[in-house]
Amino acid sequence: MRSRLSSLPPGPRPTPGENDRRAGVLVPLFVRDAKLWVLFTRRTESVEHHRGQISFPGGGEESEDDSLYETALRETEEELGIARRDVVSLGSLSPIVTVTNFYVEPYVAAVPQPYVWQPAEAEIAEVIEAPLPSLMDPAIRESQPIPGREGVILFYHYGKHVIWGATARILAELLEALGGPPAR
User: Fold this and answer.
1) Tell me: the pLDDT tens digits for 88-133?
2) What are phi and psi of 168, to 5 degrees?
3) Has residue 164 been placed in a domain?
4) How far is it, in rounded angstroms, from Cα 65 to Cα 171?
5) pTM given for the model
6) How many CB atoms lie within 10 A of CB 77?
7) What are the residues facing 23 on neighbouring strands?
8) Distance (Å, rounded) from C-alpha 72 to C-alpha 65?
9) How far is CA 106 from the centre of its chain?
10) Domain assignment of residue 183, yes or no
11) Does residue 8 form part of some domain?
12) Domain for residue 112, yes or no?
C-alpha cells in the first residue's frame, strides 16, 4: 500500500485560504477475511459540521497538534477510540479544499484486527465497515451535477449509505491507488 500511495501522480495541491479551517482525516484500513476494508463513520445530527454525512474520522486542527497528521490521530482516537500507538501510517493522499471552507489533508493508515471501535455518542451515529473490492464496483459510482455547485459531484452508493463530497473524493483517490478508475 505504501508503494502504491507513493506512486500516485500528484493531484492539484491547493493552498489553504485565509478563511479555510485546517483539518486532518484518517483513512483507516484493515484486513478481515483476506480482504482489505475501509472504515467510515456517519456523523450525528448534532455535530457542528456535516451533520448526518458519511466521513472519515478526523476534524479541525487544534493549537496542541504538531501537524495535520497529529490532528487526524487525535480526532480518530476521540471519535472511535483507536489509540494512536495502534495506528500504522501508510502514506497520504492529495489535500483538498471543501465547499464548506475546510483545507483537509487525508492520511491512510492500517489498524490491527480485531479491534473494538468505541464511537463517541455525541459525534458518531454509526461506524461503517466496507470491503474495498465492493467499493471498486463501477455500478455503485455515480457523478452528477448539483444545482448551485460548479462541476459534477461524485457519489458512491454502498448499501443504504451514500458517500459523497470530500469523503467520496478522498475515497476515489484511494481506489485509484488500488487499481480503480482515475479519481480525477
Assistant:
1) 999 999 999 988 888 999 999 999 999 999 999 999 999 999 999 9
2) -65, -40
3) no
4) 25
5) 0.91
6) 19
7) 60, 104
8) 9
9) 6
10) no
11) yes
12) yes
